[in-house]
Amino acid sequence: MRVYDDIYDVVVIGGGHAGLEAAFISAKMGVKTALITLDKEKVGLMPCNPAIGGIAKGIVVREIDALGGEMGKAIDETGIQFKMLNTRKGPAVQSPRAQADKEEYRKYMVRKVLNTPNLTVIEGEATNIFLKENKNEVEGVEIDGNVKIGAKSVVVSTGTFLDGVIHIGDKQIPAGRMDEKPANKLPKFYRDLGFPLQRFKTGTPARLDKNSINWDILEEAPGDEPAPKFSFWTEPYGSYWFREGQKEQIKCYITYTTPKTHEIIRNNLHRTALYGGAITGVGPRYCPSIEDKIVKFANKERHTVWLEPETKNGNSIYPNGLSTSLPEEIQWEMYRSIPGLENVILLKPAYAIEYDIVPPTELYPTLETKRVKGLFHAGNFNGTTGYEEAGGQGLVAGINAALRALGKELFYLRRDESYIGVMIDDLTTKGVIEPYRLFTSRSENRLYLRQDNPILRLYKKGYDLGVISEEQYKFVKEIEEEINYWLNRYKEEKTKVLVKNEKKSVSAYDLLKRPEMKVKDLKKYGFEIPSKDYVAEEVEINVKYSGYFEREKKLNEKMRYLENIKIPKDIDYEKVPGLTKEAIQKLSKAKPITLGHASRLEGITPATITALMVYLNLKKKQKN
Length: 624
Hints:
With about 625 residues, the chain is an alpha+beta fold.
């Protein structure tokens, strides 16, 4: 019997964006939580792009916020430029993005992690995970090969650290991030238990010296005024906008690659880690290296480069779009072939990094592993890319780790109620063959899963979990009731308007359906309007898109119905009449938790779902 140096309810391994959200939410739910990290001063570090948000990603940040997470509050406080993307398109594809002061963001997270009740930070490397005698339930974690701490649940969110190797040309450096050692011992735990491991790759551009750039010839890319915010609870409450002048913003700049840039890259492709054969891992299709862009888009004359300050007062510039694994001396030549960068100084070279992941098909939608009870995975370790995707997974894993420790039923988000649910469903049903990135196009419910309504979609779930306070719950409920009040009122109230030279009685609701009509314009027709901007915004969106919402709802009704039919954990698929051997094998391996989940597995036919539905209904009648 093992003797533990200390006992915790939940232990989180890794202090990146997934690990932080897991640790914060677990502690918030009142369970004794430990966060194991190699360096407590580096929690919340942004090793790549110093930004939060983006298409779909910004919606995830607001969903994290609606469920009691921290990322939205952190970027609102430490952001240095804010934008709402896709404003020329409909609300379904709009999303906020913010440039961060990465040092201030890190400091925010360090302060938060060191001052959160129920949360202890332990510096060190997690070298093993201990299981109970039955070998299918966690019992504790080993740190640095000697310290042993007990745990009812463990969340593994190791990012790029498991057997991590950095590539710069033909140079290879064992590392989890630049200048940080990798975690080389934990992979043995997974291999010994028979978990498959995949090799993935990502990368980051060089960092440039601000003072060596010719800014005068570059195109400005300013932020938005008013600046969008991420957290519903950042002042002013109940609005997704900063007040005018409330947030000072910096400018970013745009430049472009040139034919000379492309020539340098083509001439040295054989010296890159990717095309030279040193890298075996699969890289992200949607965030490719510059050499990948040159090869795959050979006819494109130039590629956009965004020059983004990493901090408000520092010298480091992030050249977004110029990730590479070229040798360092070629990098200098390549960067200097770009307008504005003719005399640029590289503060740090670009690099690619390879690391191990466990395929997310090894997980339930709760992010608990199918092989080991109480073991959860989150973040890059599940094959995703991006701080926001990591944070969303960390939140769900942390909630469920706490629920498992408390002996309560686990929680999951459906794909029809959140982008976090879309992501986790994609990961656990389809798996990954490359680093996964969220897009609005991945959701069949994107008219409903908008950037403006996460708090309305998820606040009741947050309240039921105990991560939204009574005061917050009442505040949002009152806003929801106010939105419904105005929607109903506008359906009833009418006025006379001229339609084809004839005065007709028209409701405020029908008036607002007109493309050019805004809520504020209703005053011209004698109607009152909501006093809160957020209420007015929601009323307008709900009226203008009501027909589309109804159509989307009908198209997805069958899927929603299937999502509500749970499959018992102890089901024996061999006993289900009408299933093929292939279906039995796939269902037994995947262990879907609902019929909806089962329907999205590769190779599962409508006939299989029908057979399962008949069987489950029969079992339900027999019980009753």
